[in-house]
Amino acid sequence: MKFNHKPFVYIGFAATLLLGCGATSDILSTPIENIDSSPIKVTDLTEVEEKNWGHLDLVNDTIPGMAVDKAYAEIIKNKKGTKVIVAVIDSGIDIDHEDLDGVIWTNKGEIPNNGKDDDNNGYVDDIHGWNFIGDGYDEQLEYVRLLASGNTSDPRYNEAKALYESEYQKYTGTKTQYEQIAQVVKQSDDVLAAHFKKRDYTIQEVNAIKTENQELAKAKQVAQNIHASADGASLSKATEEINGILNQINERLNFHLNKNFSGRKTGDNINDLSDTGYGNGNVKPVKKDESHGTHVAGIIAAERNNGKGANGVANNVEIMSIRSTPNGDEYDKDVALAIRYAVDNGAKVINGSFGKSFSPHSEWVRDAIKYASDNDVVFVHAAGNDSNNVDVKPNFPDDNVNFVEVSNTYIRVGSLAPKYGSKMVSGFSNYGKKNVDIFAPGSEIYSTMPENEYDFNGGTSMAAPAVAGIAALIRSQYPHLTAAQVKQVILDSGLHLTTKVVVGGDASNVKPFADLSKSGTIANAYNALIMASKIK
Question: Distance between CA atoms of 94 and 83, rounded to whole angstroms?
Fold first, then answer.
């Protein structure tokens, strides 16, 4: 599942990146928030709010967060609760990160680095989890794999072919467009640098240029357009951004859309679920830019109030790292086995911030989701970043066939942006009255990155772990509740809103927020804990 990036506008036209404790009497007497309107926050978020907006409170702060800080201040206080294992099925996690190293799960039944399966769970030296993709990193998209297989009898082959042709044409065209933009921006930067005899010229200096030289006048106009349309960016900054975009476009063309490429390095048969034991125990990223899993883990469990970067939602968890998501589409086999590994090794909550529109072995993953449900495990899944109604267009994995569910512990999460009002739903977020359960903060989320760094990222990938964090909080504070009860508490305790919102980033598509998910709510940790406290 890809991050969604902010669009830039260059040289007068848009160039958008494609790419357990019992309840106490004070808790029981606390009223659950239930609002149907709220004032719109008219000022920009402060720097502190930007880094923590998902934990703020809609009523008090007029920001559509999950009232996490309020839950700690008024309900959790100093109560730690029961330790909960949360499995993060994702890319590699930097388990040595300063804000995560104290919350990483360790398999006590395994002796490190002795080359033996000490606990007889089928995995050798799985100290902190398991890596189902081994040394792999780049991968194709699933529909490209279908085309590469040549299986024309597949019922979705023609659909995959049409999608491939459309996407390949789009990305090759976009590459050409960006290359042209890059050339104009670089040339203009060179002209202005020669004129000022320095590279660090300011926009004020550019505005003061008076010239009849056409080349210099053109460079001035380009710099002014960039500054006006891209958050005050300089030409050198624009060049850096454009080159980053071009790198991602080339990655898309060279790997994700390349029918002749295969990144699989594990030596197993991807079409044989019984062919297990592949991969290794190294759950860390293989490259620094493999940051997705680290960011997700931080949203759930970054150590709270330690004076470092970010605060996770949950305060008494251990993160089990399961690496199964490459830079491209994950394999169904890896996901199915990852879910089963998490369940079999003690996870009570699983987060899955991945997804795709084609799934050749969707039944394997669906069976694994049912396995989690049957074994009292909450599975939280990101809704996807395609701006689609997933009641109509499929997004995998899911827990149902024709809307008949196999699990009562699966939660699919859409994404919110940090400003209450018509643009509250992230433009990239999928939605669906039947197939999306709830919404949570997902745009511009600040969290951990590899090598002790922190940054903002956005996607339903960020919304899902926010809800997984609430699930972990409930399971920690009220361990007598079943996974099914935890799911129902999260959905029933969300804030119901009557607000009409823009859907899919399309200003002409406006719907009541209540129509975008099964619950019609935004997740609320404060309400969830109060409701959980009242269930016997």
Answer: 21
Q: Which residues lie closer than 8 Å to 307 by C-beta, 6 or more apart?
A: none
C-alpha to C-alpha distance for 261 and 267, rounded to whole angstroms = 16
Reduced to 3 DSSP states, what percent helix, strand and coil does the chain have, rounded to the nearest 5? 35, 15, 50
Task: Classify burial at 205, counting beta carbons within 10 Å of its beta carbon; exposed 0-12, middle 13-18, buried 19 or more.
Answer: middle
Q: In this structure, what DSSP letter does residue 255 have?
A: I
DSSP 8-class letter at 253:
I
pLDDT attached to residue 230:
79
Contact 297, 100 (CB under 8 A): yes
Concatenating the DSSP letter of every residue in 33-81 gives P--S--PPP-SPPPHHHHHHGGGS-HHHHSS----HHHHIIIIITT---
Instruction: In whole angstroms, give the CA distance from residue 38 to residue 521.
Output: 14
Q: How far apart are CA 486 and CA 470, in angstroms?
A: 9
In the chain, what's the furthest Cα-to-Cα distance?
A: 81
Contact by Cβ (8 Å): 390, 384: yes
User: Between these two residues, 40 and 342, which has the higher pLDDT value?
Assistant: 342
pLDDT of residue 3: 37
Query: What's the CA gap between 514 and 533, in Å, rounded?
Result: 26
State the DSSP H helix or E strand holding residue 30, giving kind and residue range, or none if neither.
none
Select from 357, 360, 410 the least CA-distant residue to 388: 357
| Alpha-carbon gap, residue 377 to 320, rounded angstroms | 14
Provide the H-helix boundaries in 197-287: 203-207, 214-229, 235-251
Which amino acid is located at 337 in the chain? L
Distance of alpha carbon 89 from alpha carbon 329, whole angstroms:
13
Q: In angstroms, what is the C-alpha Rg of the chain?
A: 24
Q: What is the pLDDT of residues 431-448, one digit of tens each?
A: 999 999 999 999 999 999
CB crowding 135-158: b at 16 or more within 10 Å, else e: ebbbbbbbbbbbbeeeeeeeebbe
Using alpha carbons only, give the angle 7, 38, 417 rounded to the nearest 5 degrees.
20
Domain ranges of the chain: 53-139+270-533, 160-256
| Strand, coil or helix: 147 | helix
Reported as a pLDDT band with limits 50, 70 and 90, residue 18 is: very low
CATH topology of domain 53-139+270-533: Rossmann fold (3.40.50)
pLDDT in tens, 137-170: 999 999 999 999 999 999 999 999 999 999 999 9
Q: Are 346 and 485 in contact (CB under 8 A)?
A: no
How is residue 481 written in tokens?
Answer: 């509740």
**pTM recorded for the entire structure:** 0.90
